[in-house]
Structures are given as C-alpha cells and as structure tokens.
Amino acid sequence: MMNAPAMADLKATSLNRLHIELGASMAPFAGYQMPIRYPAGIIKEHLHVRKAAGLFDVSHMGQIEIRTRSRSELSAAEALESLVCADILSLANGRQRYALLLNDRGGIRDDLMIANLGSRHIIVANAACKIEDERYLRAALAPNCELQLLDDRALLALQGPLAESALAQLLPDVREMRFLDVWAGTLLGMDCVLSRSGYTGEDGFEISIPADGAESLARKLLQNPAVAMIGLGARDTLRLEAGLCLHGADIDATTTPVEADLQWSIQASRRHGGRRAGGFPGADVVLAQLINGTTRKRVGLRPQGRAPVRRGARLFAEPDSHSPIGIVTSGTFGPSVNIPIAMGYVTAQAAAAGVPVWAERPGEPVLATLAKPTAITPRYRR
User: Fold this and answer.
1) What are the residues facing 302 on neighbouring strands?
2) Is 278 helix (H, G, I), strand (E, B) or coil?
3) Residue 297 needs a FRET pair 20 to 30 A away by CA distance; which of 53, 147, 218, 235 works?
4) Global pTM?
C-alpha cells in the first residue's frame, strides 16, 4: 500500500469522493488515484457488467479536441489522416473510429478513438500517453489545426446489456444510437458528448461531461438498481475476455499493427492501391508487412487447468526447451468463461501452425492452446 504523501502526490478525478464513500480500494494508475475494486470484489463486479450495467470512472483518459483553423490548407480530418493509418476523411459526422497513432518504424505510439462532430474532432487517448500525444499532435498538426486538451471534462463509461435502458431513463434518444455512433447535446443540463462504445465487449456508452457535473450524473445513474460502480480491476478482466489490447502491455511503440493483428483498423483506402494509400508515419513498414507478413503475431492463449499464466511468462515449443518462441503480454482467469485466458506473441510460424505451446509458470510449464484473442462473443449494438 502506498503511504499518504505518495497518494497525495497523485491526481484525483472528480469522482474521488464518491469512490471513497463507496469503499473503493484506491491505487495509483497513470498518475491518478483510481478505484481498483469495490467491496463486492473484482469477480462479482465483472459478472455484474456481463448481466446488468457497470459504471466506470475513466476520467484519467485523455480527451483532445481538434478544429480546423480558418483559412487552413488542410482540414482537421486531412491533418489527422496524415498521422494515423485509419481512414479519417470518410468518417461520417456523428461517427467514431478506432485509429492507431504510429511512429516512423510503424510502432504504435497510442491507440485512439477519433470522433467526427462536424466542426470538430474529439480524440480519446490512453491515460499514460495523453500528455505526449498532446505535444506530438500539437506540433504535427500546426499550423492547420487548433488543439485543446479537455482536462476540465470527466469521462464515464456505462457498460452492459442493461446500459441502454439505464441511460434511456435520462436520455431516451440513446435507444436510436448504434455501435460507434456519437452524439453531442445536453444531458442533465450539461454539455455532453456521448458515444456508443466501450472497452468490455458489451454494449454501452462513454459519456464526456464537465468534471464538476460528473458526480451528479454518476449518483443519478446509480439510483438504478441495475447499475453498479466498477473498478479498473474488472475493467481489465472484461477487456481481456473481449480480446482487446492494453497499450503498454499488448501493444506499444515497438509493435506494428500487423504484428498486433490489428490490420482490420487499416481501411482499404490507406492500403496499397487505395485512394490515399500510405502517407502516415511508418507506412513503408506497415504496408510491406500487409503483403509479406511479419515474424511474430499476437494470439490468444488458453492454458490448461485452472491457474492463469501472467504477463511476462515466456512461451516454448516444447516443455523442456530453453529457446522461447514468444511471450505472454496479458493473462488472467476469465470469470465469464470460467477458464484461464491470456494473449501474447509467438513466432509467425507457430501462429500459422496453430500448435500448442508451453507457458512458463512457477513450478512447472503448462500446456496452452492457441486461440482467437476473443474469449467471448461481443454484444455490440450494430
């Protein structure tokens, strides 16, 4: 446990008082005091999201607004597209898209959600990357765009099969939204940007509102018996069951989109033969890998037995081998599927063959079969 001065040095979100009131176990995360779990515990929180609705405080994430400067040669969409491998120009007003911000080697600086709201684009960035992202974007997009880090706004995520009915009590129009729709308007008298998206594999919403109104909205939602507050511990197990990458663990600046099996996020217009092929940092590396393949691939892992394998465990072709063919990047026990689950990287040859591998574990190695990273069927509202 951290001592009091160390905790005092961390930032607190606008829901900090509510977390303490609800008995959250707080811990440092990306420079913030964040709730890891509540008294019910991670497993019960996890299962509650799968059957009802969970409310997450994700206000530590970065929210960045980008607008086209008047008389600019490039629009904000054109400028953003020069930095990511996704098609931003075709992104319709009121929609958002997953996009990868790459470096010159094709490595993933950060993975983002980019929303088009007509006169502006809103980026949601990872908490640990948001300051560097802001600096990089500000320098790279000048003089075409105006950029603002929205550090006066909170971000709440409402996730689960009952998320729509819970939020519709406050805003009936959300019933008309589909996966990756974005809406800007007024909620409880506050300026709101709402997207139908999330990080759990469930239907749900992410809600950006002024920080000083976050507690009011959270308490209003928690009046619904279907809604419970959920910590970052269950958020991690939920996203891993859904096969979703965590930046800094499963993907980072040394990992390319093709290695990470995220090539689906590169639309045809940005690939060889597309209308706007390449033109982003690392394009030569990434486009070549789309054609020629890579030396390693991200895979899902299903270890035998009941004990999970953890991040950092090496993977081997044989139990007595001393030459690793890969590594585990995330691992846990999946409460919804009732088995250990993991993801990591193996050689492209092993990934193509689909043969079992042996994972390091204290005591003795454990046999693990290769599988899709997704252990559940996502329930997005298409």
Assistant:
1) 369
2) coil
3) 235
4) 0.95
